[in-house]
Each structure stands twice: as C-alpha cells, then as structure tokens.
C-alpha cells in the first residue's frame, strides 16, 4: 500500500506538471504554426527533426543508464553525475561541430541553416536537463522535474509571444528555443547544488569505460527511436515540401502532447520501481500488469475519440490553413495507442538489464520505418509517413510483448486474463 501511495503521489505531481507544461507548449506551438504558416512551421519542424537525430548522440544512453543505476544505489548519485556530465560535455561539443559540418555540405537556405544551428544547440543543452531529471526520478523527488517542465514552457511561450510582438523572423524564434533551454539548465544546476550535492566534473577513466559499455545499448535504442520518430519529417522535407512537413507536424504535435501526458508519465513513475524490484519477480509482474491495463484503456479511448473528431480538432487548433493534415491525424493516433502499451512493456525489459533485446527491437523498427517511408511517402505523401509510423509501432509492440511473456513466465491463466481484458476493452 505504501508503494502504491508513493507511485500515485509521484504520478499526480508529474501529471499536473505535464498538463500545465503541455498546455503551455501546445499554446506556443499553435501560435507559432499560425504565425509562421505551414511553410515556416515546416522549416522549424524540419530543423527540430534534423537536430534531434544528431543530438541524440550527445547523450547516447547515459541518461537512462543513470536513472537505472541511481535508482538502485542513491548514494552513488554524485559519482554518476560528475563523470557522466563530463562525458556529455565532450560528446556535445563533438556533435555540434559534426552538425555544422553536415549542414555546410547540404544545400539548405540561409534561414534553414541558422535555424538548425540554434535549435541544435538548444537540443544539446536540453539533453543535460533530461540527464538531471533522471536524478530527480531516481530519488523519487519528481516535483523539481515538474517545475522544470513548467519553467521551460513558460519561457518558450513568453519568448515566442515577445518575438511575434516585435515582428521577429524565423531565426529569432529559433533563439527562443536556445534561451529557454539555458534558463532551465541554470534552474536545474541551482536545485542540485542546494538539494542534492555540489555539481562537479570527474574523469574516472576506469568508471567511464564501464559507463560507456553499459550505456551503448540504451544509446542505440535512443538513436533508433529518434530515427523512426523523426526521420519521417526529414524525408518529407527532402522528398516533398516544407509545407507538407508543416501539415504533418501539426498532427504529430498532437500525438507528442498525448504521449507526454500519458505513457511518458506512467514510465517516469513506474520505471524506478521496476528497476528496484529486479530480484522480486512477483512484484515486478504485479506492477507491469496494472500499468499495462491502465495504458491500454487510456490509449484506446483517446484513439477512438480522435478518429471521429480529427478534422474538428485540426480546424479548431490550427485553422483552415492546416486542414490537409487532418487525415494524417486519424492515422497517427493509432501510433499513440501502440506507444501506450509498448512503452510500458519495453520499460520492463530495460529495467531488468535486457537492453540488448530493446536495442535489437528498436533497430528493427528503425529499419522498417525508413523502408516504409521510402515506399509510402512518394505515393501517399504525409499519410504514407503516418502509416509507416503506425506499422512500425505495432511490430515493435508485438516483439516486446512476446518477450515480456517469456521473461515474467506467464502461465496459461495469466495469458488468458491478459487476452480477455484486452478484448473486453476493445
């Protein structure tokens, strides 16, 4: 009962913070989309996707590794922080120079180039914020994480409104992303200093070797995940137009908000508990079953409602200028459904040191997604990209679920109970 109360409390804190921050995020995204139009919003979305694909290497699995290890041994938090922070600084500098080199080799417009640079820097700084959030999660003190979310959203909204008021261009809007990331980083460093330990940098090379070795599977998963979540925007921008990217990302932003509000919160609260109960399989099974059922119901209800009202949602949120993205929302919402039930399943597998399986599955998903995008985008444009995402999520869920049944040693009764609940929900 005590464990359940702790989970519910942390879930409540994160849910409240996420609702507030995502509402603010959605407000500035909608305002930005309306202000810039589909083409300008497409450039911002393209830059975000491009920078995220490279930016994932600035962490390369160190954040989820620190979350798992600090959850198991909180006394080692300072050691993990000081060493990982220095590794991340080295990775970040390297990745940014690589980003500059790649962009200079490609024939992008002046505005697109500088938007990519600025947003790339913001994403790299944001990876440090996510690393610090892992410390909060591991210590089950998620209120600081919630405040960080809200602070970022408020600074973004204020910056975008101010930039629009002064008739700023697309480059100035990109500066807002960078400034907001810096503000949140300063906040996080202050919290660490006063509530946890004095931040410092360490170079324990023997420890680095261990960290990098264990982080690689997590890092590969993150690379593959970013690829199959963001490569569609990059490919749409290359094979179609920035306006099409704008339409597609208007729908995708809705999926992002829903994912952040539901599966991400459940993961943030449950993953530390799963990691802690690695030696207690019955408790692990109990946590998984409850989390899966909650995720299934939430995902199904939201998906069905969205299919019926997709056009109304797009017109209400973005205006008539984005109506061509409504059909893609009807398709993409089923990716959200599979994310709901897949994320909790992959979290279980990661929490018990089965990163290799998660890595392989994510790699399979990335390859399938790229292949499907090549096949479907030329013919079906943004709807083809949406179908590719849904099919990829379905395949990955089936792989995760089949292995979860084996790991938790589900008996026939457990399997029937799961099947009956799932069918009954549908």
Automatic annotation (TrEMBL):
Domain of life: Bacteria
Topology with respect to the bilayer: Multi-pass membrane protein
Record-level GO cellular component terms: plasma membrane
Keywords, sorted A to Z: Cell membrane, Membrane, Transmembrane, Transmembrane helix
Membrane spanning residue stretches: 12-33, 39-60, 80-102, 114-135, 147-166, 172-194, 215-231, 251-271, 292-319, 331-350, 357-376, 382-402
Subcellular location: Cell membrane
The protein's name: Flippase
Protein source organism: Candidatus Acididesulfobacter diazotrophicus
